[in-house]
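ugh ok so i messed up the first submission bc i forgot one of the chains. this is the corrected input, ALL of the components this time, i swear. 763 residues overall. if the numbers dont match what u have on ur side tell me asap before i send this to the collaborators (the ones from the other lab, u know who)
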Amino acid sequence: MKKVPNNTTDDVLAPSPVPFLRDPAKRAIVFQVVALLLVAFVSYYLYSNTQANLERQSIATGFGFLDKEASFEIGESVIEYSAADSYADALLVGALNTLKVSFIGVLFTIILGTVIGVARLSSNWLVAKLAGGYIEVMQNIPVLLQLFFWYAIFYESFPSPRQALNPFNGVFLCNRGLIFGVPESHAAHGAMLWAFVAALAIGWFLNRWGKQRQAQTGQIFPSIRVTLALSIILPLLVWAFAGAPTAMDIPELRGFNFRGGVTVSPEFSALLLGLVFYTAAFVAEIVRAGIQSVGHGQVEAAKAVGLRSGQVLHLVILPQALRVIIPPLTSQMLNLTKNSSLAIAIGYADFVAVTNTTINQTGQAIEGVALIMLIYLFFSLSTSLFMNWYNKKMALVER
Amino acid sequence: MSAPNTAPTREYLKPPVTEVGVIGWLHGNLFNTWYNSLLTIVFAVILWQVVPPFFSWAFVDSVWNGPSEACRDIDGACWSIIPQNISFIIFGFFPEGEHWRPGSAMLILLGLVFFSKSSKHWKKSLGFYWLIGLIVMGTLMYGGVFGMPVVETAQWSGLPLTFMLSFFGMVAAYPLGVMLALGRQSKMPAIKTLCVVYIEMIRGVPLISLLFMSSILFPLFLPEGVTFDKVLRAQVAIILFTAAYIAEVVRGGLQAMSRGQFEAADSLGLNYNQTMRLIILPQALKIVIPPTVGILLSAFKDTSLVVIIALYDVLKTTKVTLSNPKWTGYSTEAYIFLAVLYFICCYAMSSYSRKLEKTLHTGR
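and heres the new structure output, hopefully the right one now
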């Protein structure tokens, strides 16, 4: 065997000094410095232009306008709000409205998407084809068009309050939205909510204890079923102790509109329907892919070990399918939140719509757009933090 | 003990009638278990409730073409809104008499798209065809030469605007996205940070905020007297937005490249540009063609958002038509027409992407 000469120690082949720009390490530094200088120069150029333009139009910069009186009404609000409140309050109302529609939308989307995704895999030909058709149609129509469509349905196809459709007792559907009766507010309701939270907390501890016991003795504790039962029984007990209030707040037609009950505005309904129907199609595909990703051998092995079908689903299929489903699912949920900004097109007062009004009134365009970007960046950064945590937790641990 | 001689008779039994033919198919696919039978019946009833009324609304009781007065006292759909306003919905404010120009521009575009479909034509020359095509289209739309009067971009509207925003957006966003992806994979910390910040920031905000930025903030950023036209600003916003998403898809392709490819390129003495251009990108971009089509598809759908900053794309021209008192109240018909239009375009793209995925999925 010939001995391979070692270049690094061989004096004969000692490298001649590398010209400055031929040395990758030095060249990289030059590139980066140039890139940073370029970015800095462009930013400075834009900044100075902006300063000059703002001075010429005599617009004050800064967030001082937030304390001023907003003097515009907002159609619907989760908290108390009137035109006399400040811009900061108006923006808070908008942000809460965004959160409201996103939260409810995410909830419905997951349910509908899962149902359709499972239906897509159904052995029933009709059901599978219907689900497939739904997915194709909904994915291929822009969500904004869908929003306009639902909004037009509410405004053009539904009757005025006087001829409101009344599909169930106490539920009315008209061009003012969906109006339905709710239990009259009672002190017991708050207590029931706390009882529900307490049930969930107990369930969490039971689950931990059950797992420990299973690790020690092998006995399985049905913690999910017990938690479910607790979360129904505890609030019901509280309700019964409080004297079982059953009074209902039923909407009634007074003049041209309904009084009482809860009104879901056409804007909110159209936004919710559009977002949920659109996003559910994508979620359905994700769910289908997740379920199909679990190999058939896994199910057969689980059955061979003697697990019941519920246990197969709970202990074998779901943990593996969820690992595939959750990451794209979160990004769809984030998409739904971002798409909720289309609310402005149909007049639902979400954060973007309120900010837009604020910009129009105050001229504080830079601050307004920055606020919009910041709040959505906050949503997506917190989501990706969650995703990183989740991926770490769920990562496949191999030998 | 002699077993009774029961030699099997050589007579073949027919398969049971429940396993073959129409009945067999029904039994296997619709009524194989009790809950499937129940589901089938429930859905058949629902379809029976929904489809015939819709059919008679859309096709039997409907008016297909005629003045708006003919629609006042019918139960069905008033499709007349489409043929009566079709030239406004498609071409918007483009001057009457010049409609052949955006029309032929769209035909050129469709021709290019169909030409690019076949992988036989994926050569360098395809890029030149596109470049020439885009220039011809731009000239047709803007005019000013060959005796065509100039049509300002403010008058570009309807379907040509939708197509232009999406196709120019895709074509320009693609190289930018590839550059960003390469930057994100780069070993230089400053370049990498810049790219990561850009990509994550753009992906974190809704397209609307960028469109707002283009329509209200951008004029503030420019020196006094310099203005860009509104359509171009929206176009820039769409390009910047799409590029960030393309960058993420391309990054997936780059990460899928095995280290051996880089090492082989290094050992051949190729420099960074050569390695990327000759070895890495051709493979990486090929892997990510299907998801890229997905991004382009959503970019196409997203162009409808320019409605919000009052550009007259095809959705906005439809809304303008609907605000004409003669035609108010027929939104359902108009929106269904638009939905079919978008569906045809998007479905063609998505089924093409699926077909590509199958043909490209060879070997590895």
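quick check: The two ends of chain A are 39 Å apart (CA to CA). that seems consistent at least. Chain A has a mean pLDDT of 83.
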